[in-house]
Amino acid sequence: MTEGGVTSGVAGDVSGGVTGGVVDWRDTGFWEPGEGVGDEEFAAAEHSLFDGPFTWPVLVARRDALEHNIATMAAFARRHGLALAPHGKASMAPALWRRQLDAGAWGITVATANQALVCRKAGVRRVLLANELLDGTALRGLARELDRDPAFAFLFYVDSAAGVEAASRAAGGRPFRVLVELGHAGGRTGCRTAAEAVRLARAAAAAPGVEVAGVAGYEGGLPGADEVTAYLRDLRGLAAEFHAAGVCAGGGPIVVSAGGSAWFDIVARELGGIGFDGREALPLLRSGAYVSHDDGFYRVRTPFNRIPGEGRLEPALEVWAQVLSVPEPGLAIAGLGKRDAPYDEGLPVPRRVRRDGVEWTAEGIALTRMNDHHAYLALMPGTALVPGDLVCFGVSHPCTAFDKRRAIPVVDEDHRVVDVLRTFF
Amino acid sequence: MTEGGVTSGVAGDVSGGVTGGVVDWRDTGFWEPGEGVGDEEFAAAEHSLFDGPFTWPVLVARRDALEHNIATMAAFARRHGLALAPHGKASMAPALWRRQLDAGAWGITVATANQALVCRKAGVRRVLLANELLDGTALRGLARELDRDPAFAFLFYVDSAAGVEAASRAAGGRPFRVLVELGHAGGRTGCRTAAEAVRLARAAAAAPGVEVAGVAGYEGGLPGADEVTAYLRDLRGLAAEFHAAGVCAGGGPIVVSAGGSAWFDIVARELGGIGFDGREALPLLRSGAYVSHDDGFYRVRTPFNRIPGEGRLEPALEVWAQVLSVPEPGLAIAGLGKRDAPYDEGLPVPRRVRRDGVEWTAEGIALTRMNDHHAYLALMPGTALVPGDLVCFGVSHPCTAFDKRRAIPVVDEDHRVVDVLRTFF
């Protein structure tokens, strides 16, 4: 296993098993009643979203925005001495992972064993499972995969003796490499104190079939910049303690992983370019939502709002829906529901209206509520929508947008469909 | 087209195109890293959920509960002189639709054109699209399908002149048969007054390529039994007006459709067995969530709570998740998130704990919050969970449970996996 330095970024060969998709009646948002059309042939036709084989609502991804975001974040990580392991759970789209790896990402982060399996089928070499893993079936399967492919690098978290024991029991010929997770009071998983984490690291280092690769944590649940800064310093201090205690295996870099999509500026400041007294560190940033960004939750929270000189992200996801009914003054009902767009961290945001090929800004329209397949649009006086109009919505929270579709049309700036993005949830 | 009487229930031939599934790495909850196993072969192995090729979390459907619910609702509809067009959007599982049709359902209800297409691929003959449909691409496709298959019966809603015009423009050789939707103030789609509905029915009856088949409405957004009763009487009255005005086409029965899963007792009382002065009626009940029922939203709202002598529904969906961490007293974190279970109409409900093959009731455990892949379990003092424990959760709101998975293991009462349910979202 070549763990590599911060910037080595040996890209995986993301391909096998996840290509060869066919657009057919199974794909929501497409209207393909026939035998189906291969993804590449479909994309080559460059259908217009507005008169091609589509049916409303359609969730689309803007190609230029995706590419811009991937390049922006890769440059940010490089600039700050961070390795990037983008959280792949956001999109679960191997084609995007490939672009992230091609742009220099160290590997791909996931949240579950099933997602790690998708990574392997997609040819991702380095997988960080940013979660505890105690499932014997998955652990044994991943141990076999480690033995099968010497190039497969796999990291996951432990925060309990039970986690270390589960890993030790399932290990194969190559040891499991674990990160000891440091949490915080009121947080999610992770040891609550450094002392507990050091004790656990010693137990892991002593367990057959298990090696300690470093530390990890998640700052996303903390209330503000001061708490995030203090927490990341604790995490860095814990890694130094691990180094001093000699619990980290081998001579490679000590992994120090953090970073959602709300505080990567502080992660860069506190973990960028660090090392430990003669031993290299691998600061691994796990941000994932940046790939599509959004028009709600992350629009407000992205660190680029604090550091505009370093770049900006573009919202890449749009949902186009049709007005089905304008049943009373001030109310329109669109064909857009909980099956089509996220609603857990803010509702979709009306952006544009389109009628007979003419578009205008969706001023005076607010989405107030969704059922499974309907959205309620409150209309300010003077806002005329009629049945048949199209409304383009931005979304809030990419993770619960991507998972609504198996196939997402990728559009250029003229809304020609130039690719089909396959997701694996 | 044979519209059929209330109880004729000619079942569709639900088959083509939706069988031949393969369990592989794409299927979340399964652990199949190899080349994949055909659904039938997989089911024939009767794996135990607890030591078979599964990885947590797993959403399962209980076979006996599904069968019980399908039989219970079929009997209810028959007993009350209602034809049943179960809302297929709840499960989007053609294998369940087939059972519903085999049990006597008149046809399948859907909410979108894409879902109507899945019905056709599944061989469903009678499809009620309980929604306005203004999408030219889908309308033209469905017109072609009507011309291709004389046995295909298709109904959808109109509530505006624009809807009638869109249908008329797209119609093929066989006319579109529409239901004029009656809504109510503060509700969703549908004409707000009977006068408006009659005007629209006359326009539809006069439009080339369009026929009026009857009326439809949705009582699910009304606050209580009195309002539901009054609304259903209005709906019945509207159908009588249509009859008197002679706007309904042909000599077949006049369709009067209503019914979600919260008020079908009142629908039965107000619409069961009705007719209009020498002309037959087809009262079509569209309840869908009953197929799996739930442990939350519908557990509280099912009409069977008011009429226990007529039967009861059983919750058919369970999610099994593993405790990943017990990081501080009173808190456990399970590997169960917004990608795995519904959270829009109540959170998952802990029901049982399983450790080393022994199960007990999940007393003193409450799920308080979910992230994308984590659930926060608040533990009462004395409730000991340890990492590795399994927790079985009931869910609230079937529609946002089924749509989280493409393949759902169907279990018997010993939690042997006896079938694989495929969903098409």
Quick rundown:
Two copies of one chain form a homodimer. With 425 residues, chain A is of the alpha/beta class. Chain A contains eleven helices and 21 strands.
Your description of this structure?
Chain A has 425 residues and is of the alpha/beta class. Chain A has 2 domains: 157 residues, D-serine dehydratase-like domain (Lyase, Ornithine Decarboxylase, Chain A, domain 1); 163 residues, Alpha-Beta Barrel (TIM Barrel), CATH 3.20.20. Helix content of chain A is 27%, strand content 25%. The first copy, chain A, contains 11 helices and 21 strands. In chain A, strands 3, 13, 14, 15, 16, 17, 18, 19, 20 and 21 form a 10-stranded mixed sheet that branches. In chain A, strands 4, 5, 6, 7, 8, 9, 10, 11 and 12 form a 9-stranded mixed sheet that branches. In chain A, strand 7, helix 6 and strand 8 form a beta-alpha-beta unit. In chain A, 60% of the residues are buried. The N terminus of chain A is likely disordered. At the A-B interface, helix 4, helix 5, helix 6 and strand 13 of A face helix 4, helix 5, helix 6 and strand 13 of B. Chains A, B: Belongs to the DSD1 family. Chains A, B: Keywords: Lyase. Chains A, B: InterPro entries: Ala_racemase_N (IPR001608), D-amino_acid_metab_enzyme (IPR051466), D-ser_dehydrat-like_dom (IPR026956), D-ser_dehydrat-like_sf (IPR042208), PLP-binding_barrel (IPR029066). Chains A, B: It comes from Bailinhaonella thermotolerans. Chains A, B: This is Alanine racemase.
